[in-house]
Design a protein that fits this description.
about 65% helix, coiled coil, alpha/beta
Length: about 240
């Protein structure tokens, strides 16, 4: 038997999610959700109590979990909206993203995507790819895939579970290609460094040769100067005195 939610049971339409009843603002859902706008436009047969009018005849939302619905309500109701980002955790925003996508809440979804983007940078790229695929966030796919290709850790079972075997094989192939290109790049860089080192050694060798040549020339000049000086001294000694 369904029971009332203690946190959200105070307004005009009764919604049942799993075994829990929520009494919330119909206008709030009409304002944010195209799905609910269309739903509430459907004419109700005369003499039949409309869905959502009472606990005995709630509007039943199938296929969702009550914890996700609670997080969506915490986002929608102003008293739960604090500073930028609403103080929500990754799991809270995942719930908001899931239901905002399901119920065509465009503005809510855009904000959830913006707030989730920096949070997901600290998580596995596979999680971001999974969320992008499931909840239709195409702008996440390329950067998340690039992070997965560049990641040092290999593709594991959790990655395959999140992104599927087909994409996992594609990523593995691209990782292998990227590693080959990186190895070739590093090899080329090493060759360039060796070439520069050889050039420096050649220049150093030339400089040493020039220095040795200059040293030899200087020694020869000094030797010649010394020889001339010695010859001069000898000539002075050999001259007779008067």
């Amino acid at each position: 038997m369904a029971h009332k939610n203690a946190e959200f049971y105070s307004q005009d339409i009764v919604i049942q999610v799993e075994d829990e009843l929520f009494k919330v603002s119909q206008d709030l859902f009409v304002q944010h959700s195209q799905v609910f706008r269309d739903m509430f436009k459907i004419p109700q047969p005369e003499g039949i109590e409309p869905d959502g009018s009472s606990d005995e005849r709630p509007l039943i939302l199938e296929g969702i979990e009550k914890q996700d619905f609670i997080q969506l309500l915490r986002f929608l109701y102003p008293q739960f909206q604090g500073a930028a980002g609403h103080g929500f955790s990754l799991d809270h925003w995942k719930s908001v993203l899931k239901l905002s996508n399901l119920y065509a809440m465009t503005e809510v979804k855009d904000l959830a995507v913006d707030c989730l983007t920096p949070l997901l940078e600290a998580e596995s790229p596979s999680l971001q790819i999974h969320l992008a695929q499931v909840h239709n966030v195409p702008k996440w796919l390329k950067p998340a895939k690039a992070r997965l290709i560049e990641r040092s850790n290999p593709i594991d079972e959790n990655d395959v579970r999140l992104i599927g075997s087909t994409l996992a094989l594609e990523v593995c192939a691209q990782r292998e290609k990227a590693l080959r290109e990186k190895a070739l790049g590093e090899e080329k860089l090493l060759e360039n460094k060796l070439e520069k080192l050889e050039n420096k050694l050649d220049k150093l060798g030339d400089a040493l040769k020039n220095a040795l040549r200059d040293k030899t020339m200087l020694e020869d000049m000094l030797s010649e100067e010394l020889s001339r000086d010695m010859s001069f001294q000898k000539s002075k000694k050999s001259k007779p005195r008067h």
